[in-house]
Design goal:
Strand content: 5-15%
Number of helices: 7
Shape: globular
Largest sheet: 4 strands, parallel
CATH superfamily: NAD(P)-binding Rossmann-like Domain
Order of helices and strands: HEHEHEHEHHH
Amino acid sequence: AGDGEKDALPHCNLQVYTYTCDVGKRENVYSIAERVRKEVGEVSVLVNNAGVVSGHHLLECPDELIERTMMVNCHAHFWTTKAFLPKMLEMNHGHIVTVASSLGLFSTAGVEDYCASKFGAVGFHESLSHELKAAEKDGIKTTLVCPYLVDTGMFRGCRIRKEIEPFLPPLKPEYCVKQAMRAILTDQPMICTPRLMYMVTFMKSILPFEAVVCMYRFLGADKCMYPFIAQRKQATNNNEAKNGI
C-alpha cells in the first residue's frame, strides 16, 4: 500500500473438514466419500498423496507389507477416483492429482514393492488421462507429480555418491508443495522436481540397460537405498530387543 502498510489477505470464513480413512480398504474409502458428499458437498479436486514404504529387501520383506505398499500406494487411487470421478464427469469439471515419485519413472535396487506401486500409480494416472481425453472431457484436468527424494524422514539414510549429493540434495517439502501447486493451478499435466529428473527419465528411455547401470553406479544411485534399509532393519531390531521379542 502507498502508506507503507503491508497488504492483508481478504478475510475468508474457511472451513476445514478432516476424516480418518484407510485408503487401502475400498469399503472404507467409499463410505468416507459418501460422508464427504453429505457433510461437505461434491469434491472437485482430488489429490492422491498417501504413501508408505516397507524398507526391506525383497526376500526379507513380509508378504503383508508388500500387499500394504501396493494397496496404499497404488490400489487406493482406483477407489478414490471411482468415488469422486462420476460427479466430475457429470459436471465436466474437476482436477485429479497423482503424487507419485521419481521412482515411478525409473527404479533402484532394494525397494521393489515401492517402485512397483509407484510405477502402477503412474500407469493408472496416464491411462486415466488418456481416457478423459478420449471422452472429450476437457473440463477435467490431471496432474502427475513426480518428486525426487523429499526430506520428510520417510527415506532417512538414503544416500547417493557424496560428490554428487551437493547437486542433488533431498528436497524441502515446502518447495515440492510450491512446485506442485504451481503445476496444478496452471493445469500442467506433469511436474518432475528437480528438473534433472526429466533428463534421468529420458536417458533411461533411450540408453541400453547396461548403460543405465553404469550411469546409476556413477551417481551412486544403484545402492542408494541400502543405508536406508540398514537403518530400518537396525531400528526394528532395537525395538524388538526393547520389547523383549
